[in-house]
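Notebook B, p. 112. Complex prediction, attempt 2.
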Amino acid sequence: MEQPLTHITPPGRFSTGIREIWQYRELFYFFTWRDIKVKYKQTTLGFLWAILQPLGMMLLFTLLFSKTWKTDTGPLNYPLFVLSGLILWNLFSSSVSHAGESMIQHAGIIRKIYFPRMIIPGSAVLVSLFDFLMGLLIFIVFCLVYKQPLHWYSLPFFMAGIILVLLAGFGAGTFLSALNVKYRDFRYTIPFLLQVLFFSAQVIYPLSVVKQPWLVNLLALNPVNGAIELFRAGLTGGPVNYSLVLTGLAATILILLTGIYYFRKTEAYFADIA
Amino acid sequence: MKPAIEIKNLGKQYMLQEAPPYIALRDVISQPLKKLFNPAASKVNTFWALQDINLRIEPGERVGIIGRNGAGKSTLLKIISRITPPSTGEAFIRGRVGSLLEVGTGFHPELTGRENIYLNGSILGLKKAEINRQLEAIIDFSGVEKFIDSPLKHYSSGMQLRLAFSVAAHLEPEILLIDEVLAVGDLEFQKKCLGKMEEVSKKDGRTILFVSHNLDSIRKFCTTTLLLEKGKLIASGPTEQIINQYVAGHLDTVAEQIWPEGKNSYNKLVRLVKIWLHHKNETGGARFDTTEEIGISMTYEVLTDDVVFTHGINLFNQEQVNVFNSHDVTSAGAMQKRKKGHYTATAWIPGHLLPEGIFSISAAIFVPNPVDVFIHVHDVLSFEIYTDFSKLTARGQYTEEFPGIVRPLIQWEAINKE
């Protein structure tokens, strides 16, 4: 029988390594499975935790923005408006922060065993996706409570928004995780970065309140804006601001390529420096 | 048949930095400023952990890899298992590689034993279907079947180890890399694992690369052996022959080591300045007779006020058996806060303890509990013990082969009972 041949050489040309990740898909699955299992096992509140945080935030922002500072959120009432933004935002922020920390957390395994390293930030993003699905369930419950109709044609919009967030989160998380291995104090910038992105996204306010066109264009660079736009448009059946979405998509592709390129470039030496 | 492993001109170069290998962003930002004022400060030294390695290993061979600490044994395994890339050269590996650089990698305390078998197995490269097939055998072999469905955190460390070994022993790659993992765990179980691996290797013709300090295990387990020294492959051939060459080459003694300023200061707390061997009368030397006390002194510089630590040594014999370890629990200064400055600690190995032979010493500066090792230098000194037949020794007038790891002068009583 012909044995699989591995050719080991010094690091060479750039490649995405997707084929190899496919070969290691079972390990990918087991990493994700472990993190979800541990997360929901460790705390009996595991499931509750995934939904309490967005619910609490929703309550807070609803009190502030629908009662104190009246905000026009179009056809959606404020609780649904903010919850739809929050669950997507949480998907992004937890993808970025968990993927960003993931390489450092797995330093022990990286030093001992070979596998395509991108599995690690990748599975961190999938764990965040799982939490998001829990949040989505609650969101659907709230839609029923507030008698917000859900249509089948909403689905492609939802999917597009979610995929946009996932790609952006994976790109940024991968980039940060590699930076984190090399520059150990980089992790302290992540919470700050996320805070800036949170307030620049139309999570708690609609982008329509921003009057200056240049500022809207700048904010559009935050991919979460485009994603939320798609998601809410799917919900209400309203018009989509496509320039917002396309700018976000362009930014996402740029982040993704930068992240993957930098990660692959430094990957070979993780075991030496982790 | 094509070789299982073929290595051509392989080399691995590391950067030697005085700081830890990873860096802080603030250092990168502040570095150019420092350079401006002190251009010599950021000199980077490189060293070759491996150089010009050429190898052919046939399928089914069991190959031992020996050499002193720092000879490049583990680096070689890391390159073959693709954990780290080479700097030069290339290697062709035919077949799946399973590496046991450490057992129990990826174990999670919250998951059950069964779940951990799947996780660990898949990290070690087993497919899910293979784990399914082997599951019963793995559980059986580990001897922890009663607890297999309770979380790992309830296991004793011995049980965790047995489970980890058991997964490892059931790996079925064509090429298996083992790095000293067998040095831990209880002896009985180790034997069981070695036996299992030997059986697998003989029956299915698996290739095994085995790095160990324990020449005895290498002798028992490996047909061929490679000898590495300072990153170079200096000999390969039948195990017995290579081990003899290694042991003979180990005969050079080192009575003193001095570290120039700036070297060996991987931390900002303390640095080693000098370590040396000496007789009772303070004269240096590396040859002692069996009755003599052997003085080992180390001078170190404390770089920050109020550091707390102790100093210790490990002693190894020619066969790389760790004869004993010792750290300072008796002197007044041990585990006390120290001010900046130079300190010298001396350990006295009593006379009438070691037999003839060559011994090597590693030294460490560390905190025993919780463990925090500031400095651990391997194989820094080595010395020879000989018998002075003009003195009273455990040998008496006996001149033949006199085995034993230690050679105490035992007090005998003999009385004539009527």
